[in-house]
Amino acid sequence: PLILSSLSLQEKETQMGFLKIKFVKHLWYPKILKTNDPLILSIGWRTFQTTMHYCTIDSNERLRSIKYTPKFTSCYAICYGPLMPINIAIVAIQNNFYDNTSENFRICGTGDLIEVNQSFNLVKKLKLIGEPEEIYKKTAYIKNMFNSNLEVARYIGAKIQTVSGIRGIIKKQLNEKPEGRFRATFEDKILKSDIVFLKTWANVELTKFYNPIIQYVDKSKFKLLRTRCTFSHPFAI
After folding, report:
1. Which of these, 171, 205, 211, 164, lies nearest to 38 by C-alpha position?
2. Disulfide: which of 53, 66, 70, 195 matches 78 by Cβ 3.0-4.6 Å?
3. Residue 212: CB atoms within 10 Å
C-alpha cells in the first residue's frame, strides 16, 4: 500500500531554509562525525540527505564552527532543508548503501530542532602570519600575510601582534607590486626577526544541499552522496 498526501503551497513546510539542531552523537556509534559529511536525516514525515555544519556557542554568543562532533557532549548542527516545526525530534543515519560490509550501529546521532532561518552567521578562527620587510621606528611594512591589496583593504584597522607581545594596527595597503603588503604601526620598534600575526574571525559559507529520499524509487537508480569515513572522495556518486 502507498499513502498519498500533499502539502498546501501556503504551508510553512513547503519552504526551504536552514535548520539549527541541538545535536548529539549517539553513544553506541563508534566514530565521530565530521563537518560537511553528508547524513540522512529523518524529520517528521520527511527523509532527506544533507550536509551538516557543526558549531558551538561561545561566551560572545557567536556560532563558532568546529571540525568534529564532541564525544560525550552535545553541540549545534546547521543544515539545509524544508522548514519544520520547532522542538521536533531528529534521527541521523550515515549512508551505508554502497558499503555492504558495514556492521556498525547505524544511528549516528539524534537531536531536536531549535530554530529555523534563511541564514545563520557561522564563523571560524583565522590566524594569518607575516613578517617585516622594512622598519622605520614604530612603522613597518609587512609582507607574506595577504595575497592581494583587496584582502588588505578588508582588514584595515585590525589589530596585529608580534610574538614578543608588541601590538599594532594595520594602516594601509601598499600600491606597489608584489601585492599583499601593507603599512602598520606598533607600540614600539619591532625587529626584523619578529613574526607578526593577525587573529580574526572568518565567515563560513553554508552549503545548500538537499536530496529528498523517496522509498518507492528503484535503489539502482537512486543516488546518494558517499561519506568520508568509508570513501576517499567526499562527494563521489
Report:
1. 211
2. 53
3. 11
**Beta bridge partner(s), residue 224:** none
Q: Hey, what's the cell of 187? A: 607600540
| 13/153 Cα distance (integer angstroms) | 42
Burial of 223 (0-12, 13-18, 19+ CB in 10 A): exposed
Please list the residues that pair with 89 across neighbouring strands: 112
Residue 91 is placed in which grid cell? Answer: 534521527
Is 209:95 a contact under the CB 8 Å cutoff?
no
pLDDT mean by block of 10 residues, the chain; 237 residues: 67 80 90 89 88 90 90 91 90 70 75 91 90 90 90 89 91 87 92 89 89 69 61 36
How open is the CA angle 161-167-168, to the nearest 5 degrees? Answer: 90
> Is 152 strand, coil or helix?
helix
Q: Which three cell numbers stand for residue 64?
A: 563558532
In a 3-state reduction of DSSP, which class is residue 34? Answer: strand
Distance, in Å, from the CA atom of 36 to the CA atom of 68, rounded to the nearest integer, reads 10
CA distance 23 to 179: 44
224 close to 214: Cβ distance less than 8 angstroms: no
Q: Per the structure block, which three cell numbers stand in for 155?
A: 582588514
Q: pTM of the entire structure?
A: 0.74
